[in-house]
Specification:
The complex is a heterodimer of chains A (about 450) and B (about 230). With about 450 residues, chain A is an alpha/beta fold. Chain A has three domains: about 140 residues, FAD/NAD(P)-binding domain, CATH 3.50.50.60; about 150 residues, Guanine Nucleotide Dissociation Inhibitor, domain 2, CATH 3.30.519; about 100 residues, Guanine Nucleotide Dissociation Inhibitor, domain 1. Chain A contains twelve helices and 19 strands. In chain A, strand 12 and strand 13 form a beta hairpin. The C terminus of chain A is likely disordered. Chain B is of the alpha/beta class. A six-stranded mixed beta sheet of chain B has the order 2-3-1-4-5-6, with helices on both faces. In chain B, strand 4, helix 3 and strand 5 form a beta-alpha-beta unit. Classes of the chains: A alpha/beta (about 450), B alpha/beta (about 230). The structure holds guanosine-5'-diphosphate and magnesium ion (MG). Chain B: It is an enzyme of class 3 (hydrolase).
Chain lengths: ~450, ~230
């Protein structure tokens, strides 16, 4: 440990592991430390099940089968099949360490019941979310978004997505409030309604991402890794190690050492000091350098049956748009099961989560819990959401934000790519990954 | 008697790439069946894990073996009488150094070589803890081989051959003393594993959990649904 590194990364959550991998691939000498004796921090999947019960100080009962068959995520997310994280996985070669399953269903809540999210013209025509005329308007809207090319004004049909808002776009096609709601929240995946007043380009990009992701594997736009999300940080950690990164788990970090000019110059663990030019870390390693900007509530539910009205899907995502239940932010329900090797045979793990708006967060997720049917065991966590006080260039200390309530990894990747750029002054160069060095695939 | 394709030559590597994934030809005539297995190396730092892989896959040995960047995922095939066994070999990438090997490393492995250094008693003790860890965490049918490496350094021997043999026997492990330096028993230990692996239903390391790997080829959006069952 008493050596000098280009960068020291603290915490092995997904963001830190991707960063560590990208830094090592870029030729930096990296030391990666975690205070826990396992990989993943908050993005770990907890195993065996006994450990999860212990974490919540609840006695485990034997009904749940072998504890080792369980890998329970603390933060629920899916990968968009055509999204940023899949691109990172493919371009770094990390995909070869992982196996995925496509999520079976994507649902949206309306008027007390759930319906499949219609994401293409065919599904729109069969959907029970809209009346006949509305279906036609929605279909025209989808076709317009698909064909819209920001670089080709001929496809714009008098609509400029740089200056006109999403609200104006909806109005152009005469979409009613209901259609706007599921489009914005279950397809474009906005958490609240602020997007309506912003330029439409972003929403159009998100709608395209959803349908391109859907086109990849068919059933839904979402992918989920076998054995749980905790495999993702481990995969990127391996990438970092292959490119020379050094790993130390179960290592206390006592101090981030700063020099006279206020720049980081190392970290101290007990009597040892490792020198470095930069530190990358999650907010838990620097409580005095972050501010709390909100809270997220997540409820893990163990169940012995699929979610009602999902055609017995072994995995699903259900989005409850805020307006449907009189809120400002959406409620998310995600369900995975034994088929992903995250639960013992016959068992399901559902997670209900949202951004906290009141002093009684458990009340807030009630509409989500109500969709699940009988729940055998609930574990509730309310976590604070932290952001760095400063962007890090002056201190060379780069802090990631906490994981937000979104149900996919798009914001996670944006944060990582942004930190990498702040830290190195350049975009990540994928061509530095030597795919063919010593392997034949 | 089984024999193995000569390791290392460029032409051999070429051939491996072109090997068909299919196990039988269309007309039903039994072709040479290809079985793919994930094999992991475990053991204390510096016992010679990477050297064993390098010897087996490329026929090389380096006195000052440095961790080879980007080479933690190699393949090599072994020919049995009517079956080609393709090993997908995972090296630790140095993550064992501070006891920081990720569980995903040995997840789904069908075979493991647990390596110790015959000149270092401590590495033998550590090998035993790795065997325990595998018996606890890995798939129940995993084939485990114990390799007492650096057998060329017999003058400095600290681990008794018979003691290690007895331990392996008790625990149902294959056992050989090997030398990555002289190549002694290197091919043989992989071959012994290949023979012991079950070659029934299983044909590829990829199908163990019924998931799918995502690849660049999937990158282009498809019009026809391609489900992930
Ligand atoms: N004499 C001798 N040296 C070996 C043998 N195998 C490996 N080494 C040396 O032991 C050191 C560590 O080997 P390495 O393969 O990097 O070990 P690893 O950390 O387990 O992967 C290197 O200097 C090798 O040259 C062997 O069979 N005999
Ligand atoms: Mg090695």
């Amino acid at each position: 440990m008493d050596e000098e590194y280009d960068a020291i990364v603290l915490g092995t959550g997904l963001k830190e592991c991707i960063l560590s991998g990208m830094l090592s691939v870029s030729g930096k000498k990296v030391l990666h430390i975690d205070r826990n004796k396992y990989y993943g921090g908050e993005s770990a999947s907890i195993t065996p099940l006994e450990e999860l019960f212990e974490k919540y100080s609840t006695p485990v009962d034997p009904a749940y089968g072998r504890g080792r068959d369980w890998n329970v995520d603390l933060i629920p997310k899916f990968l968009m099949a055509n999204g940023q994280l899949v691109k990172l996985l493919i371009h770094t070669g990390v995909t070869r360490y992982l196996e995925f399953k496509s999520c079976e269903g994507s649902y949206v809540y309306k008027g007390g019941k759930i319906s499949k999210v219609p994401a293409d013209e065919r599904e729109a025509l069969g959907s029970d979310l809209m009346g006949l005329f509305e279906k036609r308007r929605f279909k025209n809207f989808l076709v317009f978004v698909q064909e819209y090319d920001p670089a080709d004004p001929k496809t714009w049909k008098d609509f400029d997505s740089r200056t006109q808002t999403t609200q104006q776009l909806y109005e152009k096609f005469g979409l009613d409030a209901n259609t706007q709601d599921f489009t914005g929240h279950a397809i474009a995946l906005y958490r609240d309604d602020e997007y309506l007043a912003k330029p439409a380009g972003d929403a159009m990009k998100r709608i395209k991402l959803y349908s391109e992701s859907l086109a990849r594997y068919g059933k839904s736009p979402y992918l989920y890794p076998m054995y749980g999300l905790g495999e993702l940080p481990q995969g990127f950690a391996r990438l970092s190690a292959i490119y020379g990164g050094t790993y130390m788990l179960d290592k206390q970090v006592d101090e981030i050492v700063m020099d006279a000019e206020g720049k980081v110059c190392g970290i101290r663990s007990g009597g040892e000091i490792a020198k470095c030019k930069q530190v990358y870390c999650d907010p838990t390693y620097v409580p005095e350098r972050v501010r709390k900007t909100g809270q997220v509530i997540r409820c893990i539910c163990l169940m012995d049956h699929p979610v009602p009205n999902t055609k017995d899907a072994l995995s699903t995502q259900i989005i409850i748009p805020q307006k449907q239940v009189g809120r400002r932010s959406d409620i998310y329900v995600s369900v995975v099961s034994y088929t992903h090797q995250v639960a013992a045979k016959g068992w399901f793990v559902a997670m209900v989560s949202t951004t906290v708006e009141t002093a009684t967060p458990e009340e807030e997720i009630r509409p989500g819990l109500a969709l699940l049917g009988p729940i055998r065991q609930k574990f509730v966590t309310v976590s604070d959401y932290y952001e760095a006080l400063d962007p890090g260039q002056s201190t060379q200390l780069f802090i990631s934000t906490s994981y937000d309530a979104t149900t996919h990894f798009e914001t996670t990747c944006l944060d990582v790519l942004d930190i990498f750029k702040r830290g190195t002054g350049e975009d990540f160069d994928f061509s530095k990954v030597k795919h063919n060095l010593g392997d034949e695939e | 008697m089984a024999n193995r394709a000569a390791p290392g030559s460029a032409t051999n590597q070429q051939q491996q790439q072109q090997q068909p994934a299919a196990t039988r030809s269309n007309n039903g005539a039994p072709q040479n069946k290809v079985c793919q297995f994930k094999l992991v190396l475990l053991g204390e730092s510096a016992v010679g894990k990477s050297s064993l892989v390098l010897r087996f896959v490329k026929g090389q040995f380096h006195e000052y073996q440095e961790s080879t960047i980007g080479a933690a995922f190699l393949t090599q095939t072994v020919m049995l009488d009517d079956i080609t066994v393709k090993f997908e070999i995972w090296d630790t990438a140095g993550q064992e150094r501070y006891h920081s090997l990720a569980p995903m490393y040995y997840r789904g492995a069908q075979a493991a070589i647990v390596v110790y250094d015959i000149t270092n008693q401590e590495t033998f003790a550590r090998a035993k803890t790795w065997v325990k860890e595998l018996q606890r965490q890995a798939s129940p049918n995993i084939v485990i081989a114990l390799a007492g490496n650096k057998s060329d350094l017999a003058a400095k021997r600290m681990v008794d051959h018979d003691e290690a043999y007895a331990y392996a026997d008790e625990n149902g492990l294959l056992f050989m003393e090997t030398s990555a330096k002289t190549a002694m028993n290197v091919t043989d230990i992989f071959l012994a594993i290949a023979k012991k692996l079950p070659k029934g239903e299983q044909t590829s390391a990829q199908g163990t959990a019924q998931g799918r790997r995502i690849t660049d080829a999937d990158q282009a959006p498809r019009s026809t649904p391609n489900c992930c069952k």
